[in-house]
Amino acid sequence: MKRLAIPLAALMLAGCGLQPMYAGGSHGAVAQGLASVEVAPIEGRAGWLVRNALRDKLSQGGVQADPRYRLDVLLNDKLEGLGLLTDETIGRERRTLRARYQLVDLASGEIVIDATAGSDAGIDVVSSEYATIAAEETALENLSGVVAERIVTQVTLALRAR
Predict the structure, then answer these.
(1) What is the pLDDT of residues 28-57, one digit of tens each?
(2) Of 162, 156, 161, nearest to 22 (Cα)?
(3) Do strands 69-84 and 90-105 pair parallel, antiparallel, or not at all (unpaired)?
(4) Residue 134 resides in a domain
(5) How many domains does the chain contain in total?
(6) What are the two backbone dihedrals, phi and then psi, of residue 68, each rounded to the nearest 5 degrees?
(7) Dist CA 128 CA 46 (whole Å)
(8) Is there a contact between 97 and 77 (Cβ–Cβ < 8 Å)?
(9) Using CA atoms, how far apart are residues 131 and 93, in angstroms rounded to an integer?
(10) pLDDT at 1 exceeding the cut of 70
(11) 132 lies in a domain?
(12) I need a labelling partner for 45 at 20 to 30 A (CA). Which of 39, 77, 89, 138 fits?
């Protein structure tokens, strides 16, 4: 029964039109397209973190092609206090990182994507100021990776459609 189930499942999947996103590995069209995306400098510490994460994710195979696209990113990094305690101190913070980005075709100047991505994280404020600052920085590092991953996903979908 199992011997029949696997080929049957393969036939059913082939009929539904699903195709692997990264077909062809590092030599496939999507991987080559991602490798041809140049990330413009992004302002600030959050910008440095997001840009590095984007560059890592866009050239995962180590292949760097001549730039065909430019990715412009504007960030909004906000840290706000929440949860007032009885002694009027803040007990919790929320760090929000939002990105507005555009993928520009360098040959034509056409904007391929104009979108936003973002994420947020909660931070406990503790009595140690050092621990709180460390938690804020860790949250920024984690959010940078999440936002970069969301941007790369949308860029991948747009390049695949082209």
Answers:
(1) 556 677 888 999 999 999 999 999 999 999
(2) 156
(3) antiparallel
(4) yes
(5) 1
(6) -110, -25
(7) 24
(8) yes
(9) 13
(10) no
(11) yes
(12) 89
Residues 121/143, Cβ–Cβ less than 8 Å: yes
Q: CA-to-CA distance for 143 and 97, rounded, in angstroms? A: 7
Beta carbons within 8 Å of 38's beta carbon, 6+ residues apart: 67, 69, 70, 71, 106
Work out the angle at residue 105's Cα, subtended by the Cα atoms of residues 102 and 110, and round it to the nearest 5 degrees. 75
Question: Domain range holding 124?
Answer: 24-161
CATH of residue 38: 3.30.160.150
Number of residues assigned to the chain: 162
Find tokens 């709180």 and name the residue: 132
Q: Report yes or no on 15 lying in a domain.
A: no
